[in-house]
Amino acid sequence: MKNVFQYGTKAILCLCEIVVGVLLFMDPMGFTGTIIKVGGILLVISGVLTAVQYFRTSPAQASLSQGLAKALCALTFGLFCLFKTNWFLDTFPIITVIYGIVIVFTGIIRIQWMVDMLRMRIDRWYLAGIGAALSLIFGCVILANPFETTELLWKFVAAAMIVNAVADLAAILFARAVEAGNREEI
């Protein structure tokens, strides 16, 4: 049951990554701005609720929770997201570099999967190898940033997200099928 939940969770995350990739590809600036504003709204709500909770708690217990400081930080960052959305959009190339680094590390992890599959003599090990190669290529291209505009870079990031998620989904489904086959042999 634990493995079904684990594979199901990973598959859902892959599907969500595909959806985000498609939305980002369609309108990079608009989608990102909307996500930042929604995040800001959620932070403001969280800040207000934390502040209310702080003042409803006994003074001795409230002093231990640091609730007011947490509430003020959430409110400040939430309001910054709402009113300075363009700041995030302007600094997106820095965020993209971080994403490129994460994709390269993901490729390295996929190399581990591929070698593990080879060592266990699992058919279709090359699926993990393809995913590893794609991750390494996409990550290096993102880090090199040969694009003329930020919007073009975002579209490439979106395409990379979609392709990586599809590769992950294929690997997850294959691993699930192999695991089910191994249980039947026992």
Shape: globular
| Beta-strand residue percentage | under 5%
CA-CA gap between termini: 17 Å
**What structural category do the secondary elements indicate?**
mainly alpha
Helix content: over 70%
Q: Evaluate the radius of gyration.
A: 21 Å
Described by strand count, sense and barrel closure, the largest sheet is: none
Q: What is the N-to-C succession of helices and strands? A: HHHHHHHH
Number of domains: 1
- The low-confidence parts are none
Count the E strands.
0
Tell me, rounded to a whole number, the average pLDDT: 84
Count of individual helical segments: 8
Question: In a nutshell, what does this entry contain?
Answer:
The chain is an all-alpha fold.
Could you characterize what this model shows?
There is one protein chain. This protein is mostly helical. It has one domain. It has 8 helices and no strands. Helix 1 packs across helix 2, helix 6 runs antiparallel to helix 7 and helix 7 runs antiparallel to helix 8. The radius of gyration is 21 Å and the shape is globular. The relative contact order is 0.14. The mean pLDDT is 84.
